[in-house]
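General statements about sequence and structure are easier to judge against a single worked case. No coordinates are needed to read the tokens, only the vocabulary itself. The sequence in question and its structure tokens are set out directly beneath this paragraph.
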Amino acid sequence: MINKHDITGLVLAGGLGTRMGQRDKGMLPLHGQPLARHVLQRLAPQVGQLAISVHADAGDYASFGLPVWPDVLPGQLGPLAGLHSGMRHAGTPYLLTVPCDSPLLPPDLAARLAAGLMQNNADLAIAVTEEIDAATGQTVRRPHPVFCLVKTAALPQLDAYLRGGERRMRTWHGPLKLAEVLFENNSAFGNINTPDELAALQAQGLSVPMAQAILADTVAPVAEIEELPLPQAFERILAADIVSPISVPAHDNSAMDGYALHGDDLGGDTPVTLAVVDTILAGRPGTVTVQRGQCARIMTGAVMPDGCDSVVPQELVQQASASSITVAPDCIRPGDNRRFKGEDLMQGQPALLQGKTLGPAELGLLASLGIATVPVRRRLRVAFFSTGDELRSIGEPLDAGCIYDSNRYTLLGMLTRLGCEVLDMGIVKDNPQALEVALRGACASADVIVTSGGVSSGAADFTRDILARLGEVAFWQINMRPGRPMAFGRIASEGDMALLLGLPGNPVAVMAAFYFLARPTLLRLMGADADTAALALLQVAAQAAIRKKRGRTEYQRGIVERGPDGRQHVRLTGAQGSGILHSMTQANCIIVLHEAQGHVAAGDLVDIVLFHGLI
């Protein structure tokens, strides 16, 4: 088995881009990000290290923060020159190469190529797909040698091949053993060679991981900081590191009610009798030097007397009087029941790091340090509204074809739970002028605008046109279910600017898009650290089979419970339509079925996100 940390992933970039108007294809924008960044996002989880190969000028690739390895071979040799450069520079036993213009590369590319290489005891493995030959109607194999996993020890063979004047990627390996690994999805290995192909890919929608990466890369915490008294800072996000002004505990102290003594006095084969020379209470240090053969009565938290390194709990004392105690020679080990100065926190060490949400434990820790005020990020201001002529507010009569607006109340709860300062703007009709007025007004008063409805391809969805006038949009569709229509962009009005998160209109889709896309974005804007922003995934077994279409991420409502065997398993709540909000009240988790997954069999492990703390 090849460990992913033994693989360097190399993106082959910097080509001529002839059919793209001589533009570097890796830097062409797709959903607001360079093509190469999409490739890196798919590749990163599969390998231990990443690097980029370019022909000559490193250019904008240096901004990715990764090693950039220019070709060392003269002339425009394409991927072969990149392979050569990668094999020379990589510090790992294996190198995986992928082109910069294949943003749909398989998420299991490295694992499957590695398995094929090991099973065949090969020196390199390449991806192959099958297709129907138009002329013969026969199934033929198509190799993709640029998608290659190779031992870096094969560099001498490549050097010899190049010295012979050959320049073909398919044949450089010569006598080395090659493994061909069959992949089913032909489109995963397609190159973006023309503007039309790029436009078609843009229209297909975005993967969930890439959408999450774009959102994470785009947003930064609000700059304003407030200094709050400790009681008012509960559930706020820390804006600066807190360095401990004192050591906690401030002195070596007792962890038990008992007797402080010299550990060297214990041992031997007979009981030990010690003279009691002092009584030490918490907050009242002792005044007597405790010699060998002596001890001091001591309470939990009291300062250890000089020289004493152990505490015998009072329940282990065989005999006790006001003047002496007798203990078994092996009742404790030397050093037991003593807490050291700074054991919890040493003076000058970071107590809490910025980005931490201040919960009960954090408030207690800060109080233990004597800290009265803390710097926190100001609350994030979020304006939200629903769109649709069919919507009615609670308390209004329902006309034929109308429904009550539930999304605003769902959003109100989710935003309030996050700690945002919320501005409920009600319902906005399906009218371009009304929608533009609402967006401009929200832009003037909020950092973020969250809408529900109005971002699909329906005839009454005007959001796209308005955003084109007011700002820019990074993406419109995401390959997820429920929640495919979702917009993300920025809008500006009269000098004010706000982020826009346009959520779908179906109630369950609103919640799925919020939890997996909007929530981490808002938390980053609030200054929360990455651990807080990410949702924790747990794995449990599926109670029954679950149908799943490959190529998109699906979020299904589930109930996780303990079975008769004592193990936890998860089952669906029932029908999974994106309008069935009642199912969210029945569920206690969301089942996360990732893009590369297909159907799930009973007993298979699946990822879940518990609702506890979310809804």
